[in-house]
Structure formats: structure tokens, C-alpha cells
Design goal:
Length: 284
């Protein structure tokens, strides 16, 4: 009567899968709407235009400028990569950047007429600082769209709907007869449900891994992101295996457990639980 009625792994996984599908669909819809509001496509087109202008300039003129100033420019087989090198005073081959080649052109007061033409074309390009700033803005905008879209989806599916359906039931939990209770079988509060959703599921289990992926792709932290991502995944797996009620991170934070709704006795408060225990002992 006062024990948790555990649920099977298959039923629990099925509910999780259904909720994950609904979350993905709703989050995608929110992301699309937010991207329209933020005019993301126009910002992306602007960044792409900047890149194309610089890429065309590099492919059309950098070889010529590099040769003029004694650099060696080699285009990669993929059409995207390249190397710029120069032999220093000690005969050592050192790498250079497009900035160094362009700076030589910009500072040269006695350049040829051809270099003057190329310099004039260069002056019309957006500066590298502007290009980098546009891409940084694009990445931050993309991260904002993703994070807000997922947040709204979580608040609806994991907080608002469970309040309506009662006992922490999401759509998936409702379909498969699963509920949420505190470990002592007392009904969960809206505060714990909010902490479970916002801190556990959204912040720690979803956005932190997504942030690590963004930093891996765009932030340059490399293998550290993979290590941290593996660590949080392993922690969740360990908690699920070793805890008595197979409790993942979000349930540890909210002090909640999943139970079989059809079999579980749920007490409205600590007082009701204590009263039922007293009556049960008196009856025995």
C-alpha cells in the first residue's frame, strides 16, 4: 500500500519515445516561428554573401598578390582549403594568412597598376572583422532560436500538460499509464515539476549537451566538449542503473520517481500519508 509500484522498462521507454517525438515536433515548430520573427534567413543570406565575396576574391586575386610579394599560394584540391607560405631570412618556411598578404598590398605605396586595381576591388569588400562579426551573430542567433524553441516545447509538454493531466503525466505517460510521485508516494508539487522540467530536463540534460555541441563546432574547445558530453551521458546512465527507483538526473533534482498509475496509491500530502499509516497500524 505504501510502496512504489515500479513500471517495466519497455513501458517506460515507450512513453519516453512518444514524448521525445512530440517534443521534437513542437520544438521544431517553435524554432520555425522564432526564425521568422528574427528574420534568420536574411541574416544567413548576408553571411553567405560576405563569405562568397571573400571566397571569390581569394580564388581570383590572392594567387596574383601572393606571387607579387614573394608568397607561395597553393589551392587545395577541395577548392576550399589553401596554404600561403614564405621563406624567412633563416631559410625556414613559415605559414602566412590572407591578412598578411592583403596587409602587404594595403601598405605598399609603390605597388604596380595591376596591384592598384586589385587593391581597389579589395576596398569594396566587407572587412574581415565585419564578416566574422556577422557569423558570430548568426551562430548566437541560431543558438537562441534553438534554446528558446526547446524551452517553450518543454514548458508545454513537460509542465503545463502534466498540470492539466495531474500527477506529472505527460502525453506519453498518460498513454502508457505512468505517473510521477515523490519517493514516499506523496503527490508531487508544481514547484518540483517545474524544477524537474526547467533545471533537470531542459538545462542539464538538453541545453548543456547542445551547448557543448555548439562549442565543439564553433567554439574550438575540441575534445573537451566530447569528454563533458560523455560524462553527463554516463552519469545519467549510472543513476538510472544504480538508484533504487531507476532515477535519472531530472528526477534526482526534483525528488520524484515514475510509478505505475493503475497500481500506485498516491497521497495528497504528508499528513494524509501519516494518517493512513497510523490507521493501517491500528487496523493490524
Amino acid at each position: 500500500m505504501f510502496e512504489l509500484k515500479k513500471i517495466g522498462l519497455v513501458k517506460r521507454a515507450s512513453a519516453l519515445l512518444l514524448d521525445a517525438i512530440l517534443l521534437a515536433v513542437l520544438a521544431t515548430g517553435f524554432m520555425f516561428l522564432i526564425s521568422l520573427i528574427c528574420n534568420y534567413s536574411a541574416q544567413e543570406a548576408k553571411a553567405r554573401d560576405y563569405y562568397n565575396q571573400w571566397d571569390k576574391f581569394r580564388k581570383d586575386y590572392i594567387q596574383e598578390v601572393a606571387d607579387y610579394y614573394g608568397f607561395t599560394y597553393v589551392e587545395g584540391d577541395d577548392g576550399e582549403s589553401y596554404t600561403i607560405t614564405k621563406v624567412d631570412e633563416d631559410g625556414v618556411i613559415i605559414s602566412a594568412s590572407i591578412d598578411e598578404v592583403i596587409n602587404a598590398l594595403a601598405k605598399d605605396e609603390h605597388k604596380s597598376d595591376r596591384m592598384e586595381e586589385i587593391s581597389a576591388i579589395y576596398q569594396k569588400l566587407p572587412t574581415i572583422l565585419v564578416v566574422n562579426a556577422q557569423y558570430e551573430y548568426l551562430y548566437s542567433l541560431l543558438f537562441t532560436i534553438v534554446s528558446v524553441g526547446i524551452l517553450l516545447a518543454y514548458l508545454i509538454l513537460e509542465f503545463i500538460i502534466p498540470i492539466i493531466l495531474k500527477n506529472g503525466q505527460t502525453v506519453g505517460k498518460k498513454v502508457f499509464g505512468i505517473c510521477l510521485v515523490r519517493p514516499n508516494c506523496v503527490k508531487i508539487t508544481n514547484i518540483s515539476l517545474f524544477a524537474r522540467t526547467l533545471i533537470g530536463k531542459y538545462a542539464i540534460e538538453t541545453m548543456f549537451p547542445i551547448l557543448l555541441v555548439f562549442l565543439f563546432l564553433f567554439g574550438g574547445i575540441g575534445v573537451l566538449a566530447i569528454i563533458l558530453l560523455a560524462a553527463i551521458t554516463l552519469l545519467n546512465l549510472i543513476l538510472f542503473i544504480v538508484t533504487k527507483n531507476s532515477t535519472p538526473i531530472h528526477d534526482v533534482i526534483a525528488v520524484t520517481v515514475a510509478a505505475d498509475k493503475s497500481l500506485q496509491m498516491i497521497f495528497k500530502s504528508e499528513e494524509e500519508l501519516a494518517e493512513n499509516k497510523a490507521n493501517y497500524k491500528g487496523f493490524i
